[in-house]
Design a protein that fits this description.
The chain has one domain: q2cbj1_9rhob like domain (Jelly Rolls). Helix content is 30%, strand content 22%. It contains eleven helices and 17 strands. The strands form four sheets. Strands 1, 4, 5, 6, 7, 8, 10, 14 and 17 form a nine-stranded antiparallel sheet that branches. A four-stranded antiparallel sheet has the order 9-15-12-13, with no helix packed on it. A hairpin with a 4-residue loop joins strand 5 (108-110) and strand 6 (115-118). Helix 1 packs across helix 9 (280-287) and helix 10 packs across helix 11 (306-313). The N and C termini lie far apart (72 Å). It binds fe (ii) ion. The site of fe (ii) ion (FE2) has 4 residues, from loops. The site of fe (ii) ion has 4 residues, from loops.
Length: 332
């Protein structure tokens, strides 16, 4: 006799869906003052490119097949990881560190990533807004990855500050769980020196997510002693790694001493907009339904008419046919 097992997967999915809807029914009001006293952005804060000593890994080294890669004819988008690289000069990174430290009181606890986090940094810091729109900054990021990149239209998730501290009550510090991001192109910039904290290593799984999911329990338990788990080279203020966040499993080890701050800058390739991997219900619980709807309208505009979108947003125009080359022109 054939018996039908309860469809627990479907029940779980429905529960998650209802929970996400419930958590989305708030108006995003971060309460961050809009006129913080901060240093001004200077074009001279952009580091010189190219740089020596930048290691890179392609998607094939994470067991991805050619058919799974992002990209299109004439535009291969297959960089998996790269770093360490400096997107800012030492002076620029120090200015950014000061700003991010001052924004810490407004960061909110996030139980998904076990840290405090401030989203939509572009909206509260003119410095950061100018940085991610600086033609040289975007040109260097684009050259590193090999595709043209602009600030991500999902602005709340686009630039975030992550703060990591040991628990104040003396409890055992928690790790940031293993996860994939919604974003394809993520630049993680450390704004702490490694001597300022114990733990807080950015670890990643050098293999396919399918493989990770099969061996999740063992891999998570072994952590950095697992042969496929590696630590990204973030050592000094300003050190940056690129990660294909949506395709490379990553986590952060517990911080047991000191504090650690990172700025996560997600960029967007307007020529491959339809391949963006964000999902509406991933960000709605964080940002509220109304703001998420606005962000998604912006994303649709960027996908459908990238040149018009860039012009309206004051983002440097990337001429078609010259991806990632020196041809990113300043805004008119
Ligand atoms: Fe992440």
């Amino acid at each position: 006799m054939i018996t039908t097992a309860p469809d627990t997967t479907r029940v779980a999915a429905l529960t998650t869906g209802l929970d996400r809807l419930r958590r989305s029914l708030h108006t995003a009001d971060d309460g961050v003052p809009r006129h913080l006293d901060e240093p001004s952005w200077e074009p001279g804060f952009v580091a010189e490119f190219p740089q020596a000593g930048v290691d890179s890994l392609r998607m094939a080294e994470f067991d991805y097949t050619t058919a799974e890669l992002h990209g299109r004819a004439g535009l291969c988008d297959d960089l998996a990881m790269a770093g360490p690289v400096a997107l800012l000069t030492a002076r620029g990174a120090q200015a950014l560190r000061t700003i991010c430290r001052e924004l810490k009181p407004w960061a909110v606890h996030n139980d998904q990533v076990v840290s405090h986090r401030l989203r939509n940094v572009e909206a509260v810091s003119p410095f950061v807004r100018a940085m991610v729109r600086d033609p040289a900054f975007l040109r260097n990021a684009s050259r590193l990855v090999g595709v043209p990149l602009i600030p991500h239209p999902l602005r709340n998730a686009g630039v975030q500050i992550n703060y990591y501290d040991p628990p104040a009550d003396g409890a055992a510090p928690a790790a940031v769980k293993w996860h994939l991001d919604g974003m394809n192109h993520v630049f993680t910039m450390t704004l702490s020196d490694h001597a300022e904290h114990t733990g807080g290593g950015y670890v990643y799984y050098r293999g396919h997510p399918r493989d990770f999911d099969i061996h999740r329990e063992k891999t998570t338990a072994m952590g950095s002693s697992h042969p496929k788990v590696h630590t990204a080279p973030l050592q000094h203020v300003g050190d940056t790694v690129f990660t294909r966040g949506s395709r490379v499993y990553h986590a952060v080890t517990p911080v047991s001493r000191g504090d650690r701050i990172t700025l996560a800058v997600s960029l967007f390739c307007p020529l491959l907009g339809a391949q963006d991997e964000n999902r509406f219900w991933h960000s709605a619980p964080d940002d509220g339904l109304l703001r998420t709807l606005g962000n998604w309208r912006r994303l649709r505009r960027a996908v459908r008419r990238p040149a018009t979108y860039c012009r309206r947003e004051g983002i440097p125009i990337i001429p078609l046919g010259h991806p990632a080359g020196p041809g990113i022109a300043p805004p008119k």
